[in-house]
Amino acid sequence: MLSGTIRAMLSGQFVESGGEITFKELSTPILERVIQYLYYKVRYTNSDEKIPEFDINPELVMDLFMAANFLEC
User: Fold this and answer.
1) Share of the chain above pLDDT 90, in %
2) Which of 26, 33, 69, 70 has the fewest CB atoms in 10 Å of its CB?
């Protein structure tokens, strides 16, 4: 798994949350973009095909950086 925070959440007990993980610290568009990047990274790691650019909107760079730091990825 690529995220230490998500790994820790999934390995713990979720009795109080009913098995759901919520990220109140992250907005939906930022979390969605992080997940897209994690998929991109898995998809193209050790790939023989040409790796396309992963475009990032410059306006989101700081929010994405903070999200990656929070998620440990």
Assistant:
1) 47
2) 69
Query: DSSP of 11-28, one letter per residue?
Result: HS--TTTTT----TTS-H
Neighbours of 37 (CB within 10 A): 17
The model's confidence at residue 17, banded by pLDDT at 50, 70 and 90, is: low
CA dist., res. 65 & res. 34, Å (int):
10
Dihedral, CA of residue 71, residue 32, residue 46 and residue 2, to nearest 10? 20
Q: For Cα atoms 55, 59, 63, give the angle at the middle one, nearest 5 degrees.
A: 95
